[in-house]
Amino acid sequence: MNVKPLTPDSSPQASFGAQLRAKREELGLTQDQVAERTGYSPGHISSVETGRKPPTLRFARQVDRMFGTGTKFANLFLDVRASSLLQGFAQYLAEEAKAVEIRCFEVGIIPGLLQTPEYAAELAAAALSRGAIAQAQADERLKILASRQRLFTRTPPPQLFAILDESCIRRPIGTPATMDAQLEHLMSVAALPNVTLQVAPYSMGAVRSLDLPVYLLGLRDHSITAYSESAQQGSYERDPEAVRPLLTAYHHLQVEALPQAASTALISKVREEIQ
């Protein structure tokens, strides 16, 4: 039997799954036996163990009762809920690491894959100062971001198609020096052979086909998955029927956005304005 290796340090959700598997194996139980005793399917147990599906409080309490672990898994669930990752994003990250093609659209902030460490630190510090996250979550965000950016050192690296709403390059984050370095980094990345960078200008108006951040992954089996999010919730989709409208909207956006040369020229102009 092939057993998927776990990465418990990657997120609280992954840690929950790893500890669930460890306790199950310590007690000599199969996933089928745990499923039968908790009222969940074997597939659900497997998905929670491997971090593909987040646990619920009800599930955590059922596991505690079955294992006789007091409130251990209920407490671990609280760590998952308090994680800086939106629902669905952990699933997305697992697939992003294997993707051969990444398409993204962002509004308001530079996409994580293209952020400089200083820019990313400013965002984390701002969220920390307004009480949206704790220090551990801020540290987690930066750690995950650094791990994601190592994709570009992979051989071969994934193809990246990034479309940034104009607000991404005009919204000041940190000091003028931080923004200047971030915009310079964008221009450097745009020169890479595996990267296509476009800006969706304000002048597009209502023609812009997407209003919220969207990420689309092309996987080795030629399937396409999608991750989209609002302010408080993320959603990872594998169903082709759910992904197709997002892919269509993205293709429309690619056609209407500025070409790469015009996009880098606009970024250069914004750099001049902030200096």
Automatic annotation (TrEMBL):
Residue stretches making up the HTH cro/C1-type domain: 20-76
Signal sequence, renumbered to the chain: none
What the entry lists under Pfam families is as follows: DUF5753, HTH_31
Q: Which SMART domains match?
A: HTH_XRE (SM00530)
PROSITE patterns in the record = HTH_CROC1
Spell out the protein name for this chain: Helix-turn-helix transcriptional regulator
| Originating species | Kitasatospora cathayae
